[in-house]
Specification:
single chain; alpha/beta; Leucine-rich repeat, LRR (right-handed beta-alpha superhelix); Phosphorylase Kinase, domain 1; Transferase(Phosphotransferase), domain 1; 18-stranded parallel β-sheet; eight-stranded parallel β-sheet
């Protein structure tokens, strides 16, 4: 691999092709070149400076490629006089300014790549009228490049590849795009394109003329509509684009059912429909796909069972059905998916046993079954999947022991079995030796394992050594001991009953301002706890929307699942917190109910003021609000800042209230609720700890000093992973992550965050010069690209954004001692 600077080639008078791509060359773009040079390739190096205008003197140039360097400036205006230039590749640099007008004079251009730069402004409306010989056009990744997609695209009738992704194009997709009959790839993702009515979707009809289309993406735009008013045209369109291989419609506003006719795309290899509002079932006809590799329909409102037909697709490589309402059992047919590498079914309502046949999927590297209702034991057949790297079965109802054979999986990097009902000894080999690679908290019956896990020791019962001793024990000792023990048990029960009446853990008494309410009142308010009124599920509880008839008020009723270990303590903890602390940015409690249900079982619930705007997580990632308009339209820069201020005020109060220091331990967007005025309220106090002096206590058990792992992956402070003590600094870390998420609109568990990259690291390396490349594109549009906004206001908005992100970074320092505290945070934020 070549290093250093590019030497002079001026004396190589007959040199026609100079290709020094893919090296480690540095310095300026070369200027000393032979006069008859035709092809110049210097891409994928570390060149700096600008593209020299002197290249215009080499009139024989047909190809210039300087891809993937550090070149600044813009395309020189002198390039308008290059008579033979056919191929210009300058993508992946730091070019800036408006679209270079000189290019419009290069009528000989066949391929143009200016993607992944910093170009801004609108595209010239006559772009393809001037460049009518274009065959490929790459302008993606210029986040300040906007305006409308020019209808003149159709003038370049030989275009077969168009990439406008990652820009800020607005308005409608021109129907003239359908005149590009040679089109094989059209990428319009990550823009602000719109389509609502049937007429605005005509561009999709017109693409039926592009019979060679193989790749089509309009993901992460603002396309919406019900079937058949929008996606209904897909049915007609499919008959024309039979060789389509990649269809990407994710992160829009689509509603209605998923058209089963999509399965007629016989050559489809990738189908992405995630982050929309599709309803209904997953079409069983998807099993007819014969070449499908990637199927992602996550983050919708789908229900019903996982079709067994899906697992009969011979080529299926990746399945992501997470964040839906799928229920029922996982089909045993899953074992047919021999090529499956990634299986993601998180956050549904799947139940029953995890199929043993899952172990037949020997190509799997990633299994994510967390946040469902799976029961039974972890199948030992998983040890057949020798390629497995990630296994997440957390937050289910799994029982039994952890299979010893999981320790044999040599490639396993992450294992999360937390918050189940597992029991017995933790295996001591393999991944279990790495305390940072596994999560097993929330399983009260586990013990033993490697010393690094800091688990309690297992109780071992020694066996007798001789047959004679065994006989003696069987014949004499055991009967005597049994009689003694029986008497002690009976006596103990009588004593316990007497004490239990006076010393059992009681529900904290609320003042008279909290009215009494019965189980029957809450049952009536929720129509018998109907699933139609279910608005959320958590680790220990379910939340229902209800109407208290007598008071005619709408409430949120949090019903605790007392069969789940820790639920009773969580109820007591929340009662204590809500009785002792009151603040305008904490979720207002109306009353509590501790009673028995209609079947005679214990029943415990909390009644809160209903928050019509839901939680912050849904506000960020769901796109239709309760009145049918776009939530993203509501989340302006100022509203995001107000949410941050509200949450900061709540956390400062918890940390410094007159009852002592309360540590929330689980701050995340789903625990932040918003009322009609978009005022944020922090809720879910089931894990709160009070700190008085240096002592820490659980509000459910004041004598307890045991902490365990706290929080949620992605939001929990790094010191918790190592068993660190509960502290306000850990809350500050969680607050910082939430702040960054609000402005980036990226989950800290996003797939992009791996190999050492996190939402914090991404912000650090982008701050301050490149933050506009990582923040929510809606904010980019609001702060930079609104033509009506005066420059002074734009600059003020950007300064506010930088100030906010800087606060987030100060809260997420790796060391707790380096982080700011909530009092300082509030002081830095606007009033």
């Amino acid at each position: 691999m070549l290093q250093g600077r590019i030497p002079s080639f001026a004396n190589c008078s007959k040199l026609r092709v100079l290709d020094v791509s893919y090296n480690n060359l540095v310095g300026q773009f070369p200027t000393e070149l032979p006069p008859v040079l035709q092809v110049l390739r210097v891409g994928t190096n570390n060149l700096t400076g600008t593209i020299p205008a002197s290249l215009v003197n080499i009139t024989t140039l047909t190809t210039i490629s300087c891809l993937n360097n550090q070149i600044k400036g813009n395309i020189p205006s002198e390039f308008a006089d290059l008579p033979s230039l056919q191929y210009l590749y300058a993508g992946g640099n730091k070019l800036a300014g408006s679209f270079p007008q000189a290019i419009l004079n290069l009528s000989t251009l066949i391929e143009l790549d200016l993607g992944l730069n910093g170009l801004s402004g609108d595209l010239p409306p006559n772009l393809c009228t001037a460049l009518h010989n274009l065959q490929t056009l790459f302008l993606g990744g210029n986040i300040f490049l906007g305006g409308h997609i020019p209808s003149s695209l159709s003038s370049a009738s030989n275009l077969y590849e168009v990439d406008f992704s990652g820009n800020n194009f607005t308005g409608l997709v021109p129907t003239t795009i359908g005149k590009l009959t040679q089109l094989s790839s059209l990428n319009l993702e990550k823009n602000q394109l719109q389509a609502h009515s049937r007429e605005e979707w005509e561009f999709l009809d017109s693409l039926g003329n592009s019979t060679d289309l193989q790749m089509f993406s309009v993901s992460r735009n603002r396309l919406s509509g019900h079937v058949p008013n929008s996606l209904g045209v897909v049915t007609e369109w499919i008959g024309s684009v039979k060789i389509l291989q990649q269809l990407v419609l994710e992160a829009n506003f689509f509603t209605g059912v998923i058209p089963s006719s999509l399965s007629n795309l016989s050559q489809l290899g990738e189908l992405y429909l995630s982050s929309n509002h599709f309803i209904g079932h997953i079409p069983a006809s998807f099993g007819n796909f014969s070449t499908l590799q990637n199927l992602d329909i996550s983050n919708n409102n789908l229900h019903g069972r996982v079709p067994l037909e899906i697992f009969k697709i011979p080529t299926i490589f990746q399945i992501d059905f997470s964040f839906n309402n799928l229920d029922g059992q996982l089909p045993t047919d899953i074992g047919n998916a021999k090529q499956l590498v990634h299986l993601v079914l998180s956050s549904n309502k799947l139940s029953g046993d995890i199929p043993k046949t899952l172990g037949d999927c020997e190509s799997l590297e990633d299994i994510e079954l967390d946040s469902n209702i799976f029961g039974g034991s972890i199948p030992s057949s998983l040890d057949h999947i020798t390629s497995l790297k990630f296994l997440n079965c957390s937050s289910n109802n799994l029982t039994g022991s952890i299979p010893l054979s999981l320790g044999n999986l040599q490639h396993l990097e992450k294992l999360d079995l937390s918050f189940n009902h597992l029991q017995g000894e933790v295996p001591a080999k393999g991944i279990f030796k790495n305390a940072t690679a596994i999560r097993i908290e929330g399983n009260q019956g586990l013990c033993g394992g490697p010393s690094e896990l800091l688990m309690q020791a297992c109780v071992v019962t020694p066996s007798n050594s001789t047959r004679n001793n065994e006989s003696l024990v069987l014949k004499v000792v055991i009967p005597i001991i049994s009689m003694v023990l029986l008497g002690m048990v009976i006596f103990g029960i009588l004593i316990w009953r007497g004490k239990h009446k006076s010393k059992s853990i009681s529900v904290p008494s609320f003042a008279t301002k909290f009215p009494k309410i019965s189980f029957s009142d809450l049952a009536r308010a929720t129509e018998g706890f109907s699933t139609c009124n279910l608005i959320g599920c958590g680790r220990y509880s379910s939340v229902y929307r209800g109407n208290l008839v007598e008071d005619e008020i709408e409430v949120a009723i949090k019903v605790f699942n007392l069969e789940t270990r820790g639920a009773h303590k969580s109820f007591i903890a929340e009662c204590n917190v809500l009785r002792n602390v009151r603040h305008r940015n904490l979720v207002p409690i109306l009353t509590a109910c501790s009673s028995i249900d209609s079947t005679g079982n214990d029943f415990k619930a909390l009644v809160y003021e209903f928050m019509p705007r839901g939680d912050l997580h849904n506000l960020l990632y769901s796109t239709i609000d309760y009145e049918g308009s776009s939530d993203l339209d509501l989340l302006t820069m100022s509203q995001r800042m107000c949410i941050v201020v509200d949450v900061a005020d709540a956390m400062e109060y918890l940390h410094q209230n007159n009852q002592g220091t309360a540590v929330h331990c689980d701050l995340k967007p789903s625990n932040i609720l918003l009322d009609d005025n978009m005022t944020a309220h922090v809720g879910d106090f089931g894990l709160v700890r009070f700190k008085v002096g240096s002592a820490t206590s659980s509000l459910a058990n004041p004598s307890s000093s045991s902490v365990g792992l706290m929080g949620t992956i992605g939001y929990a402070a790094p010191e918790y992973a190592g068993g660190g003590q509960v502290s306000t600094a850990a809350d500050v870390y969680s607050f910082g992550v939430v702040l960054l998420e609000i402005f980036l609109r990226r989950r800290p568990t996003d797939d992009m965050f791996k190999d050492g990259l996190s939402i914090v690291k991404l912000t650090e390396i982008s701050f301050p010069d490149r933050v506009m490349e990582i923040v929510d594109p809606q904010l980019v549009q609001e702060l930079e690209l609104c033509q009506e906004t005066p420059t002074a206001l734009k600059e003020k908005g950007v300064r506010s954004l930088l100030s906010m992100l800087n606060v987030g970074l100060s809260c997420t320092k790796p060391s707790p001692h380096e982080r700011t505290n909530m009092h300082e945070v509030v002081a830095k934020l606007p009033e």
